[in-house]
UniProtKB/TrEMBL annotation:
Its main location: cytoplasm. The keyword Transcription does not apply. This is Small ribosomal subunit biogenesis GTPase RsgA. Zn(2+) binds at residues 287, 291, 293, 300. Residues 101-263 form the CP-type G domain. One of several proteins that assist in the late maturation steps of the functional core of the 30S ribosomal subunit. Helps release RbfA from mature subunits. May play a role in the assembly of ribosomal proteins into the subunit. Circularly permuted GTPase that catalyzes slow GTP hydrolysis, GTPase activity is stimulated by the 30S ribosomal subunit. Binds 1 zinc ion per subunit. Its cofactor is Zn(2+). Keywords: Cytoplasm, GTP-binding, Hydrolase, Metal-binding, Nucleotide-binding, Ribosome biogenesis, RNA-binding, rRNA-binding, Zinc. GTP binds at residues 160-163, 206-214.
Length: 328
């Protein structure tokens, strides 16, 4: 349906979602609650106060009681009513959370039964890894990849500190995943990364000290993310723990996730991860029900599928490596 054919039909959530950024809506004689709500993007969350972008205005909001227990997270598109002027004492109310196109979850650890959504609507997960100081950890990269594939978010490997070490070895490690890679160094502008971020909603994730703040400062002039010193202790510094979305000068958003170093992956099933390996998917047709896809000895049909030449052995090895990284 096009926007012209709506007529007097009531606005529903889908209408709001497909037209983000509009603050005024056609008024009809019979309107559902808050039909005149503005659309906002949640760019920060701090102790029950939400920072939103409504058109080009930064607005502070609280949640309306009608939201119930549903959490509002950075990246959410919301409907907001009340004072959206952005004035110093202005407080708006979030009355609705639009359907999410993706969710990135974190659990405190893999045994934690509560999955916490940390970011909504991201379409790219930027895995920031230093080439040295600290050295790359493939376990971490693997876990991030599993989280990305499971959430339907495209991964991008961003290798920092290219002045300290060469990237060939780590690039070779992931050569079978069609994983895009960019390298950066602080003495050069991060143009290859900026090009990949343009007009997208990207989440940056990385261990402390990999140079994430340095990157964000270079990507978003005017931000002042604290730059730390790599140390063996590294826990004494005060760091904010909630995600924040920053507007990129060329369009798009980058979400920094201080305090989120990895993801709980207990909820990721072998079959949901397999879905990202489309070349292997048909091979699972002959697997026993709820196959763990780990070995032919347990009846997994993927080995035979690969042996018959239908897919690359290296792809199966990559898939299993990621599968096993869930419990690293
Ligand atoms: N040699 C070199 N050092 C870098 C580079 N980028 C950042 N650093 C240094 O690495 C250290 C950590 O950088 P940050 O940007 O604070 O790293 P971070 O990932 O934000 O770390 P947290 O703030 O702890 O999350 C700082 O001393 C930076 O100056 C680089 O490209 N090359
Ligand atoms: Zn199997």
């Amino acid at each position: 349906m096009t926007s012209h054919s709506r007529g007097a039909r009531d606005m529903d959530e889908d209408d709001v979602r497909t037209r983000p950024g509009r603050s005024s809506r056609p008024r009809t004689r019979t309107r559902p609650a808050h039909a005149d709500a503005a659309s906002g993007l949640v760019i920060g969350v701090d102790r029950g106060r939400y920072t939103l972008r409504v058109d080009d205005v930064t607005v502070t909001a609280m949640r309306a009681r009608e939201l119930g227990r549903k959490s509002v997270v950075v990246g959410d598109q919301v409907a907001v009513v009340g004072d959206v002027s952005g004035g110093p004492d202005a407080l708006a109310r979030i009355v609705r959370i639009q359907e999410r196109s993706s969710v990135l979850r974190r659990t405190a650890d893999d045994d934690d039964p509560y999955e916490r959504v940390v970011v909504a609507n991201a379409d790219q997960l930027v895995i920031v890894t230093a080439l040295a100081d600290p050295p790359p950890r493939t376990g971490f990269i693997n876990r991030c990849l599993v989280a990305a594939y499971d959430s339907g978010i495209e991964p991008l490997l961003c290798l920092t500190k290219a002045d300290l070490a060469t990237p060939e070895e780590i690039i070779e490690t992931y050569a079978d995943l069609e994983l895009p890679v960019v390298t950066c160094r602080r003495d050069e502008p991060p143009d290859p990364l900026a090009a990949r971020l343009a007009n997208r909603m990207s989440v940056l994730i990385g261990h402390s000290g990999v140079g994430k703040s340095t990157l964000v400062n270079a990507l978003v002039p005017g931000t002042n993310r604290a730059i730390g010193v790599v140390s063996g202790i590294g826990k004494g510094r005060h760091t904010s723990t909630s995600a924040v979305a920053l507007a990129l000068p060329g369009g798009g958003w980058v979400i920094d996730t201080p305090g989120i170093r990895s993801f709980g992956l207990a909820h990721v099933s072998p079959s949901s991860l397999l879905a990202s390996f489309t070349d292997l998917v048909p091979g699972a047709d002959d697997c026993p029900p709820s196959c763990a896809h780990l070995s032919a000895a347990d009846g997994c049909a993927l080995d035979a599928y690969v042996a018959a030449g239908h897919a690359q052995p290296r792809r199966l090895a990559s898939y299993r490596r990621l599968l096993e990284s869930r419990s690293d």
